[in-house]
Amino acid sequence: MVWAVSSRRTYSLSRPLGLGFITRPPHQFLSLLCNGLRILRLSELCTQPRAMATSSSSSWELPLVAVCQVTSTPSKQQNFKMCAGLIQEAARLGACLAFLPEAFDFIARDPAETLRLSEPLSGNLMGEYSQLARDCGIWLSLGGFHERGQDWEQTQKIYNCHVLLDSKGSVVATYRKTHLCDVEIPGQGPMRESNSTIPGPSLGSPVDTPAGKVGLAICYDIRFPELSLVLAQAGAEILTYPSAFGTVTGPAHWEVLLRARAIETQCYVVAAAQCGRHHEKRASHGHSMVVDPWGTVVASCSEGPGLCLARIDLNFLHQMRQHLPVFQHRRPDLYGTLGMGQLLS
Catalytic one among 89, 102, 147, 193? Predict the structure, then answer.
């Protein structure tokens, strides 16, 4: 059963009605407690008028994206089965682009297991996802693949690689995580991503997709607003932060950071997240979500595996940028210009 969450808040800029959908895997009952939100059946939603400031598009004419939330384990095939089911459901519901979280392929127990389970982009697992994209006719944002790069034999380390596939299963973009998560959070345990992973050398230019121009990032990158501003200045309309936030940093920082990145860049922000307990050593916060350029959470998941859906309204985005032209008001004479030359062509 599919349900929709329809926000009834109003804004001074005549913000359009935000629509989000939440689904669960088959045979699971969905219950929602949403303060200030009205819950509608999908059939009722399709008959609701959409309050729009300048756009004449109907809500069902706007591109639909799906955000998949999973609990990865060390079993790659078990993880693929879970992700494939959500992607197939997203395609059935009409999504043009599905987002998977960081480490969608697996979450290992230690660096040695991480290295042992890793594959090159030409390996079997990426081939399975390419075939899945073709079969479903859907674009896939594969948010953090443990990639054995061309330097694997020399370094014996991997890259945390965000892969974007088109609906024909072709790789149209890759981004290798540039900010590695080497942190010690009290109550969450130490993380040393650099024990197994090499930081990427560069950012990638935003990519044209059926939902808009997507700028690629991964998890810990969200703490560095310079990256998001560079992507926005390069034309990004959607920023995506596939993640595996921990259970201490997640409740404190996850939504705050996502909304901040959306507001400061005036982009949609799409964040697919890991959730639940992966094994005895690690658990993740969950709460995948989509945030619009006003900073409103327009779709979200809770703690368990599932997916949420949201419409991407680029007319609203451009209206926001017209009403609040912050990029025109920047003062590079005072604080410099972010390095556009760092983006790939």
Answer: 102
